[in-house]
Amino acid sequence: MDGVVWETNTTALEYIFNPGKVLDSFPTPQAPRMTREEAWYNASQYRGNVLIISQPEAVGMGDNFPLALSQQFTVQSDVVEDYIQTQIDISRQTEYNKWRLGVSIGLGIGLPSLVVAAALTAQALAQRRADGDVGVQNGNTLF
């Protein structure tokens, strides 16, 4: 499927492109034999859809009129949009669960380890003090 199958002319300052309205307008003068259903099928299956924005009647421009091209795209129904949004939500929930599990494991292992390390350090210092290895000079503890 090559060539232009839909176009519009406007002098408005802005134009909102609505693929659904465009596809519902088929057949068009550029594609008189293409039904609405065929237009929807082609737009959803063909990855080479491109919007071309041009001003061929720009004053004094000749053949060098302004032209802009969009990235290639497909047009999908609302069902596909809902499916993609559901997949995004599932992915976010899975990532959240991984973080929550990681933080829980980190706190579950890290906090008791820190308490044990502090207790062992305190015990070792108490033992050294009891053995006389720790002296006090002018109010400062010497190790």
From TrEMBL:
Protein name (Swiss-Prot/TrEMBL): Uncharacterized protein
The major lineage groups are: Eukaryota, Fungi, Dikarya, Ascomycota, Pezizomycotina
